[in-house]
Amino acid sequence: MRLTTAHHALPRKFPRYLLLASCIFGAVLVAAILLDLYWPFSESAVRKELGSAASATVSFEHFHERLFPPGCVAEGVVFEKIGTSVPVLTVERLRISSDFVGLFHHHITLIHAEGMHVNWAGWRRSQDKPSGSTIVDRLVADDAVLEIPRQSSQGALRFRFHQFELGNLRGPGQTSFRAVFENPLPRGLIRASGRFGPWNSSHPSQTAVEGQYSLEHADLSVFHSIAGVVSSTGQFSGTFRQMYVEGKTETPQLIATKTQHGLPLKTDFSAIVDATSGDVILRQVKAQYGRDALDIHGSIAREKRRPRIAILEIQCDRGRVEDTFYAFMHNPKPALTGNIEFHVRLTIPGGKQPFEQRVSLESDFRIENAKFTRRETQVELSKIAEAPGQNRPDPVVPASLHGKVSLEHGIAQFAFLAIEDQDAAAHFHGKYDLSGERVDLHGQLKTEASLTKTTHGIKAVFAKVIEPFFKKGAHVTVVPVHIGGTYSHPDFGLDPGQRM
Question: What's the sign of the alpha-carbon dihedral 239, 240, 244, 250?
Fold first, then answer.
């Protein structure tokens, strides 16, 4: 009976094992068919997907598929576009990986690009719109290079990315980004992170973006006319075409290379940046340059393919004249001290000429409590103003100056310059050469007191040369005068064209 029972039990259990094996085999067969239908990592499929995403023709030197985990490795990857003479993108080694769930949902877990080089000129000229629907959870392209050509002998700008990562690329919602790269102009390290999207395929420049940045130890000497190291932090939001940026900068010493004179500069700024063109609108800049408190607004932009030009409006309601002009003076000791306030419209075009030759400006200014600082000048003024019986007159009486000046090609033209103190007033017009610091001012000195009482101030400066006028008449009060020499060593005298 036991043998019979066993003999009959085996056929009853065997169909169950067969059914299970059939199910497993069927599942494997279905999976194999689905993988064959949906497998995205064949060489032709990857080439097609990358080409659609970049609107380019893609080629590989070597290609390897991987089953576990699903993915592939491509080497010598080249992206080319019609109308460009060089590849727009090359990658030494491209690793793509996913998981089995992602295969059926057009998801790529990771794309890792090693040795990536991007030629921006080719991308910029292309009018093709990328396509494709594959979502990339994470794209990493560390040690990548972005090259932007320039119309100059210095060659292309090269941005070297130590770290670069995108998250949720072409997925629903926003794409995250994180980058650490070397900025070439001025050379320094930039760290940036944030989000952009959803992507506006019809108008990419209108895609929303937000994030924060830091600029570390940027060397300003690349601009030739100035030197120093600037650092900056800030945040931005808006769109790629209209990005609102707020931040601050700090430069321990902003130096004029020609004079090697510098002062600390700090700013808090608000600006609008067009990331598609590089144009900047300075909405408001609060700056502290030495002891000068400055309010600045303006723009740095390019018009009709011309070199970029900066147009700035600068208002100073509280400053010191020795700080305002220190960067332009060769003598380390200022010739004049005093409180200054001014308004300047400043234009700085691009170019290779020295800064003082390129810059142009129009300004109204006022200096209060103005005094000469050169000791030799003080002594000379004391001697020429000395009256009989006086031991040591004091020529150092504060004066006020105000005027209107314009600057072109390194020459400052004074349409009007007034110097006044408690006893006299002088009104001038003329010019000043920034390169040689040469002064050439012509005008009139008006005084109401007699020369014998001239022991200080503006009259003391001109006392010796105007003395003949007073000998001819006690009521002569207006005298033609001239200021020549240099800013540090001025010469005071009668106007050469009207000497008597």
Answer: positive
